[in-house]
Each structure stands twice: as C-alpha cells, then as structure tokens.
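Is zinc ion placement plausible here? Inputs below.
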Amino acid sequence: MQDEKFKVKFGKSTAERPKVLLPLSYGSSSLALFDMVVSHLEEQCQNERAVQGYVLVVLHVGEDAARMERLRKKYSQVLEKLEAEFVTVDPAVFVRDLARVTVTEEYAVRRTENSESLDLQELLLQFESRSSRQDFWQQVVQEVALRSAVAHDCSVVIFGHSMSRLAEEILALTAKGRGAETAHRLTDGEIEYAGRRLHVIHPLRDVLASEIKEYVRLGGLQEMVATEESVKHKSAKNKTVNELVREYFETVESEYPEVISTVVKIGTKLDSPQGMAQQCILCQEAIYRDPKTWLEQMSESANKEVQSDVPLCYGCLMNLGVGGGAVWPVSRPSREEILAEYILEE
Ligand SMILES: [Zn+2]
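Reply from A.M.:
I modeled the complex. Tokens:
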C-alpha cells in the first residue's frame, strides 16, 4: 500500500481519494491489518493541512454487530480524527435466485427450477461433509465482500491474509480441484466484479501467522479475536481440507518457514489458464475445461453421450457428489441489483 494513490492529499484533491474496503473476520490477521491501517491513517492526519489519502470501509460479513461496536469503542479516540465507515452485512443477502442443480450417475449436470425457499443455514446444511460446507461458506463470504465493495463504491479491497494463510489457500484450492482460481483469488491485482474493476491487495503477504500472533499479543488485540471452532480433537476424516493444510503449515512454521514462502512464491507465479471459459453455475468461477470430459476417462459410469444442461466446475461437482444435488443461488446480481438491495437495507 505504498502506492501513490494511498498517499496523503493536500488541497482540493479529496475527490480522488479511493475508498478501501477491509473485510474483517475478527481473526488475528484481519485485526492486525485493521490496526496497521488505522495507525497509517492517523499518521496521515497529523499534518493539519493534509487530508487522509483514502477512506477506509471496514466490513464484517456475519451477524455479530456487537463485536464491531466493541472494536469502534476500543479505537474511538483515534477514529474521531479519521474518516472511516463500519458495516456489518448479514450473509443472508447471498440467497437469491435459487435453483436445484443435480449431478446424474452418468456425471451429467441438470438444472431444475426450485420451489423450496431455504435460508442460508439450510442451504449449507444440504452438504454432509464439513469440507464442502466450508468451501461454499468461503464463497458466500467472498461474494458478499465483493458485493459490498461495489455497493459502497470501493475501488480497492485489502484482505488480511498472512503468508501462512495464503500458503494454506494455495494448497487447499489445489486439493479441492480449484487450482485454476489460485491466480485471481490470491495474487494482488485487478479483478472485475459486477461490471466494476476492483484492485485487490494482500498487504500482509510477507508476514507469517506466528508473527501476526505476536503483533496481536503486543498490541493487546487478543480480546477482539474471535475464537475459532476447535477442531483439534476431531479425526482427520472430519476435518476440512483447509484445516488439514493449516495444521500442516502450523507444524512446519517454526522450523521451516521457507516451506511456506516457497509455496506462496510458486502460487504467485501461477497465471489464470488461457482460453475461453464457461462460468460455473454454482460458484460463478471460470471453467476452462469441462471436468466431465476427463472424469469420463477415469470412470466407467460416466457416459460420453449424455450432455450436461449447465456448466459445473470440478470443485462444485465434488461438493455435490455424483448422484447428488443441492439448491443454491445460480446467478450473481448485477451492479444495479446490488445497489438497489443495499439502498433497501440502509
Ligand atoms: Zn463451481
């Protein structure tokens, strides 16, 4: 975030200030990033003739609005001098345009109209495995964060991922059959969402999780950290792919931190695949190669003659399972729909 566009502004140039969205999960990393950004803005505001270089929008996707209030109270003295917005968005906004998507025994994908009205909790509970639920939940949070960026007119999104977390995501995405998403999800750069260009940055990409933990401890931020559901006692079978990979990196971090940086370095070198892509009906990610075509090479039950109605990526196909199905939102809202939805809310 050393870029010219974030620097302190003088005179009448406030109109050009970018709005920066910081999604806050209340994990150590995003709280540490929040603390750093607030200090950065405070520094910028020390000169009386200067105005802060960017406007901060802090976002939590969840139902815990009380925690946001506690955070604001903790920083109230500094925040008085700054321009910052705080938003808690109910992830239920994700639920729209539901349809039933099923995978036949022959690996063909069918879309049928849906008559059930399920809430977000019910949608997620359709998946038996914790890993699939977590995979879809991550998508919900990501989608709602990007929609909020559009709704609040932010041109920049900063994620609190540490180097350890990025390494976890790179291996987890690969294991979940979402390797093609690595480049646009984890590399810094521009993405397009609902017709809007968003500059995505991971400012903590060079910092290890253990270093963040220490920063949080020294800064007295522990009281704000949301405790994660404990999974230590569960058998490996019940763990999500992300949990398994995270545990692996936690064990190597103290002695072999270079393993983590190597994974991130290699992951960052990956580019999005070339060629025309279709869009997955469930996660809206690009599909460069229909998974059915190579599943046919591995399985006898896959039938080449039976065509799919709609495209489904490999990651989502595995989540649904062959012979399985689920009700899920099958489209993204347009920019106009996002804006209309947020105006209604406010
Ligand atoms: Zn998908």
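Short version: The first helix runs from residue 28 to 44.
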